[in-house]
Write a structure and sequence with these properties.
heterodimer, A: 187 residues, mainly beta, Jelly Rolls, 8-stranded antiparallel sheet, 4-stranded antiparallel sheet, B: 172 residues, 5-stranded antiparallel sheet
Amino acid sequence: MSLIPGVIASGISGHLGGNYYSIATQTLGSATSTITFSSIPSTYTHLQLRGIWQNTTSGNGYAAMTFNGVTTGNLYSGHVLYGNGSSAGSNTADGQNANLFFVGSSAQTSSMMTAGIIDILDYTNTNKNKTVKILYGYDTNGGTYTQELGLASGLFMSTNAISSLTLSLTQGTNFAQYSSFALYGVK
Amino acid sequence: MASASTYTPIATQTLATGASSVTFSSIPQTYTDLVISMNVAGTNTSYTGITIQAGNGSVLTSGYSQTALSGSGSAASSSRITSNANWNLNRVSGFSSDQFGAYIVNIMNYSNTSTYKTMLERTNITTGAGAGVEAIVGLLQSGSAINIITLSVSGMNFASGSTFTLYGIASA
């Protein structure tokens, strides 16, 4: 029996407990080197950053995420478990000046975007250093530039509440047009 | 900054009897991302994974590719599928009532007509032959907004009790 069990959009049933809130979104109309979410309200328990992005340079690279404008002191560390389509691997980067995560190349095609979901836990807690959890991925249908799927962790060794978040590219180039980042608060 | 509650359930289906596919159609275009939360099992040992197709008006049957990272409990591996007819969640859940697998599928910027569509998925299965974890990034080479998604299995059914919920996340 071929059954399509009546799952249609008319079944809208309201909100999921009202625990997940949109804070701000930035969608790029043109290439931009730095994206900042500032004055992040402290009324949530966790933050989630969801987005699609791409760099404007020819080659894969990494985005750098910093908090509260802190770019010195080697306060950031991270680990990643990744797969590139043929093998799995893991890397670590301790004592950095940013949390790093993957960015696919616009040289593959301008329409293929890296996607990511970044959780920043207990961002207002002043008794803890801050931890980050990232799921990211980029697929090119077997194209020239490496596809990658990764699960990453990040540490920001600061007990200050996070009130701003900045994204840039380690290659010094730009996030491409149509890159889009949306910041949410979770109660 | 604006603040609006979101992560809204759009539709839910709990299977009272087995079904080979579930379709979400007429998906509203008022959200930024879609999330499908599934807790499913198959009905026999020929279960080869869940396929996902999406489109606008009707599902596309080409243009899909994916890269997967998988852990079986003893080893990690990565695989790739190119130029395919669907996305394939290839780590399978079990075949009985205590072997349901958890799948979370994120379809990012689904209504965006400027870019191809990217999907991020996580699978967690704790019992049965397919026990393990997996993450997948999928690419659909289509610039059209998505308003229909079909999830299916081949040669068998999703088991009774399988649940499928589609959520919409709207950004400010």
